[in-house]
Amino acid sequence: MTVRNNEAIKKYGFFFLVFIFFGYLSINFPLTGDDLNWGITTLKNYFGSGQFLNYDGRYAGNSLIIIASHSAVFKVLSYAGITTLVVYLAAHLINNVRQLERNTLLILILMLTMSTELFAQVLGWNAGFFNYMASLVYPLIIINLVKYHYSDWQASKYLRYSILIAVLSIISCFFVEHVTLLNLAVATILMGYMLYQKKKNYLVIANFIGTYIGGILMFSNKAYLNILLHHDSYRETSFSLTKVYHIISQQMDFYLLIDNPIITVLLAVILGYLIIKNLQKRSGNKLGTVVSYLELSILIAFIEYHYILFNTFLKDFGHRYLVSCLLSILFLLVIVIEMAKLSLETHNIEYIALIAAAIVLIVPFFVVTPFGPRGAFASYFCLCLLVVALCNELNAVKFSLPIIRIMMVMVVIFYAGLATRIGHASRIKNDFITYQEKHNTPKDYRLYLEVPYNQYYWAVHPQATDSSYRGYYKIKTIGGKLVPYAKWRLIEKNTNSNAEMFSQVLKVDSQNK
């Protein structure tokens, strides 16, 4: 067997393990919130009744979650497949393709150590996953094609593939709105570049046509007109400096930066290294030296303020959110300045493009609200890629693959244990509900076994009064009581079967009346 074949087997084997890991997460994380609401409808009802015309333009994402809510096999395979594809495309996009495994592991570690709020609303919630994660697939595909195969698409033989690109680009606009806006921005920039070059490129043309058709189809949905006219009870559009300040100071900076200390500190350290390195090069440039010291001061102030002072010495400070807002803006400004300089020095647009994409993806939420943690995921993912790209540029991980592997193993063990407990509890909970329905006991209410670690999966309603859960599992009894996890787990350990455990839980409940 040749060396090349060995490398291919190793690469595909590695990504198969990634697929298995995310498949295991999907098997164990239950349907929650909107997953359950989508589970009581069908694609026929969604499209046939005209519901899709007035809900939103996320036709592809909504279709995927409807199918996933009805088919456990589809849910697991698509969840694992989409995540693996996103991670592979992201790792492949980073400049040093030869370090694919290292890049992949770093991306996985950064992605899986994001805040619990982000994790819960994207990886711990299927409706969030099939919109916010799945939406990243096409932008990553098109950027990879542009980066590695742009000149190939100038040949007429690639014309036949243009239809596929056009179709994919249309579908790519049917997930989440801010990623659709990014797709439109990328398509416009690529078209401008092609016109500047004065060389026909079938990839650019097909992507441009398809993306604009998809964008028009998405935003022509009546739901967006209702939002503009303030006829929507959940979403609204407005713009004011007060609103922007509130979003940045109390939501955006936390969801994207402050609640994610690992990536934030890594960025600060890498930026600090770049600034000090540049200071040593231009010791005679007084203005540049002053700017560099200001940038270093901002980085130090941002980290110290948010991770040392914010919730301790300054917790009663009346303007602490104002200071947080200013420091967050300055922190992002330092990133933009340093990435622009690095792109010019290395003749690599990758660095400034990633931070620009992160900003473009989050700016729409200045106008459209509400803004939740999941809205920051795409921007956070761009920051993950930026950190990995910078590590490659600085050779920061050249000799550290064994350490990275150990870190990845620790992350996998944590999430495997977490998923196992959540999955076991969720299945026992469902079996207990079936048991109570079958025996019609208790008469006036149902007991719901608590599923633990709810900070890692998105559940809108309390577990004992979840109307979506009752609707999905056709539970007619409205009343409910929650049995704490620690309590029912103790009973489970002291019984020999589920039936015996269920009987004991019901007995304890009747004794406590």
TrEMBL record:
Coiled coil: none
Regions that span the bilayer: 12-31, 64-91, 103-123, 129-146, 158-175, 181-196, 203-220, 254-275, 287-309, 321-339, 351-371, 377-396, 403-423
InterPro entries xref list: DUF6056
Alphabetized UniProt keyword annotations: Membrane, Transmembrane, Transmembrane helix
Name of the protein in question: Teichoic acid/polysaccharide export protein
